Fold these 4 entries.
Entry 1:
Amino acid sequence: MNGFVQQANEIGGLGMVKAIMSAFDPSSVPVYAALADEFAVFDRWFASCPTSTQPNRLFVHSATAHGLSSNIRRYLVPGLPQKTIFDSIHDDGLSFGIYYQNIPAVLFYRSLRRLKYVNKFHSYKHAFKEHARSGTLPNYAVIEQHFFDTKGSPANDDHPSHDVSEGQKFIKEIYETLRASPQWNESALIITYDEHGGFYDHVPTPVEGVPSPDGIVGPAPFYFKFDRLGVRVPAILVSPWVQKGTVIHKPDGPTPTSEFEHSSIPATMKKLFNLTSDHLTKRDAWAGTFEKYFTIRNTPRTDCPEKLPEVKKTLRPFEPKEEVTLSEFQKEMMVLASQLYGVHPRRHLVEMVDRMSVGEASRYANEAVEVFLKNGRRKLQRLRQLRESNSNK
């Protein structure tokens, strides 16, 4: 596990060295501190591969990156073709929903752009609390972060240089909404990060006994086989069925080398929902699952806090800067937005995203998602009308 300091020094000097060897104290992240005390923390949850954001995010719902070993735009533009846990859930007649704030990153999965899923997307601001209050949350819900840091709506995704206190407020709101829902006693919330962000860790990454998901090899020059995991990432499991103060270590199986990683999410969903489809890949068939932590108790807890600590201090000494250029991750989200809009030829993508400011990108993303969903719902309505017309003949 050498190299953290050396690489940080090469990239950003001593200031970055100090940053990657540092951590937040509990008072700076009071919501996480409270959830860790009240529920369960994984101390061996790894990123699915030692790569960047998008490949690891793809593993969360599909147990593979389909050969994507870095954030390569030409693969992200058309969407990745693999089957997802959303498809498995839908095929068994269960429900899922995506609650988004700017733009849903799950639309990097090509299958989620299909017309039949268009009504699975909901505005977090307008729908999540209402669905929770009325007890109509779906079987499987994904809550997406706000990725663009604007004055009216600060980013809450914890990406640098966003204010981590906004992420704390976001998690607090989600928890308290679920806690007040009539569905609380049948709920579980898992919080994790796609990759470690360069921060130091002393635990070696598993490099043996990790199966390639589907045999797809990454591109030159590394030809990565996706046969090892990445660095550990935080993971918290919240549920009234989870014992207070639980620390979850290495899983019991299904193989001697199994670990908790992002593929553990679809693997656990398959067990919890008794899904009839096969595993998505060899990776979720191998990954550890955490359903047993919902069965230790005979009844749900009644002592779960209704409110979490207030987030009283900002962790950044300046306001959002809407005029700055985009991060690499934000540029990838703009590539996705342009496809949802359907008006920008691929040759113009690089020029477009490179000249955008954060404020412009935020507005563009909002408009692109609105156009995509409106067009999809209009087409779906026409199809239904056509079917009704044909059935009446």
Note: The longest helix spans residues 358-391.
Entry 2:
Amino acid sequence: MTARQQWTIVLGIVALLAVLLAAATHYLGDELFPVSVGSTAPALEATTLVGPKRTKTLADYKGKVVLLNVWATWCEPCKVEMPSIEKLHREFGAQGLAVVAVSVDDPGTEEHVRDFAKELGITFEILHDPQKLTVQKYQITGYPETFVIARDGTIRKKIWGATDWSSEANRALIRELLGPGPVALGH
């Protein structure tokens, strides 16, 4: 075999691998890149439940520390942890913490989700994602699942299941991420 034939085979194999990688990325998407602590938070798109219906993304929370909670009204552990999330929101919301709870309840349940939030006295933002795109992008495996996202978009904590968000360890993390004060957004 000549050197030219060997190079042709090598280039063919490299081209085949590139095509396979592109196909895997297209068909498997986010599954190739695990959503974990230290990684960049995936895109988020969910609709508001209060006021005019509009789509919100992570860009809407630029410059803030985000506590992203993915939940459903039928999830008992979700209901159990909501008061501690509310407490965290009341303590740190004015300092730059954005609590964003994305309900993955079915389409047509918006009124039920609003009533659920009202019943629990929730004042933080509730969004709705009935198509469960957040579940796919964040690779959610159960409810609730919560991510603490730093101002730079990096996931700093990921919790599967309910937790006490008013615990000293969780509050210390939020204080650390908030730093000395809110970051001024560019003009």
Note: Residues 3-28 form the longest helix (26 residues).
Entry 3:
Amino acid sequence: MTMTDLTLGLALLGGMLTLLIAGVPIGYALLTAGLAGLVLTRPLPAAEFLLSTFAHSASAHLAYVVLPLFLFMGHMCFSAGIGHRAFDSARVWVGSLPGGLAITTVFACAGFAAVSGSSLATSATVAQVAVPRMLREGYSQAIASGTVAAAGTLGVLIPPSGLLIVYAISTDTSIVDLFLAGIVPGVMTALFYAVMLFGWVKLVPGAGPSHSIGRTSFRAKARAVVESWEIVILFLIVMGTIYLGIGTATEAAAFGAAGALAIVLFRGKDRWRIVWRGLIDTGVTTSCVFLLVIGAGLFGLALTTTQVPQHFTLWLTHFDLPVWQLTVVLLLPYLVLGLFVDGITMMLLTLPIIFPVVQHAGINPVLFGILVTKCAEIGAITPPVGLNIFVVKNTVPEIDLLQAFRGSIPFVLVELLIIGLLIAFNDIALVLL
């Protein structure tokens, strides 16, 4: 190993970041830096051969089949109005509590997250119905917009999660284990959000009405569950197939996509237009993800050749930190990067460097995947990017952006608390494994 190799690796990393700052799309920035590294570290014939085969070898992974299938399932559920029915059903159960409409929004997002796999889709779907109702009933813009944006992040934690799929393939971690590990933290996050909203409305004057609709009968609650049959059935199909060992994650994704398609066809209204639009959107999103995967793979190969990850691992483990402290240190870059890039980009940028440290230190890769996903949730609701906040603003234009970001602050604190609990008590995430 020579200093020249390390210097080259750091130069590639700096060049890629420079391209990002210059506004080059992340996929092309990764490809450019990776291609440069490939040419500079190998003879030209070897580089040409590797380049001719790399795109196929990086993307022709059977596990990637689940990504377009779950994306299609999410598009079908979005178009079928499942999010609206989840909101109506959740309100029957928790609407009588102080801050009940905000708490309803949290559980509606959790329900839709179980069939969408996307935080942006979850926020956009529930925002359409939840934010206008909350504003009409006296909730502040901060609590209305912050609740939808933050609860929407459950879409990347509660399975099926597109972010967990990308992490699984990037690190060769079991998708099934990650999905199972996301359930308890996802439910816990929803419950913590609900408790925080209850206290927010009770303790902060003007945040929202301290009373809501009257109590509902058990029969009405049972009817609400029946009316949300699509969510229940799809979640049971997907997770039941995986947890009971009936099939693999790929087969579960296929069953889920087929079930969502059947729901759209059963609904009847504009069904063929919805299916066609869903196929197009799924294809576009999948193509974008594959560009990122191929670019990140090429860039990661270049960094590995120059031994940047190995040097980073040796340097960090030299401090001989306890595992929990090392975990905190490894999560800090994700908390910072989350302010500027989306979760998938953040993972693909950092995992080639950070994951070798995770393996060397003996940190459970499933637990680390859940923790990184929690960091991505924070990034989705914090400035300057805060994609979920902008989705809510785009869906409900009268929302003031500053108020929306203010409304997300209590949720960020809750997220940090949960991350701390997961680090301290690993079994919270791993109990179902």
Note: The chain has one domain: 62-267+306-430.
Entry 4:
Amino acid sequence: MPESQQTIVLYRRGFEHGTFGVLCDEFGNEICKTIERPWKDNAPMISCIPDGHYDLVPHQSPKFGKCYALDGEEQGVTIWGPSQRTHILIHVANRVDQLQGCIGVGFDFGVLKDRQGRNQWAVLDSRSAFNHLMHKLGGKPAKLIIKS
């Protein structure tokens, strides 16, 4: 009998400076925190993605290496296109300015300096949180539900 896919749920809240959330397993246990760009009408590169149901697909990114790509045709998000949004990944990132529509993960919320030395809301310990998430998903396809 085929093994069922894990389902993880992202509960998030949007602000003008970014979208911040908590990623949980199917039982409501926290896996990590998340950071995304603010909602800008699903515009490529500058907006977080819409709420909805997505497939999480193991992916090899030229820039980020092993990660997960999101695929949700109903929301206009596919890995390769044609669609409104492509190449939406979950990868290592601490600040909103390190994202182009993707989702960054961390173990806590905090403040970090941006490239201009200004304080920015952030997620902390992104590399460790990303490794934890990758281990939790085990390199297998999964389901992601995003709720605001």
Note: The longest helix spans residues 126-137.
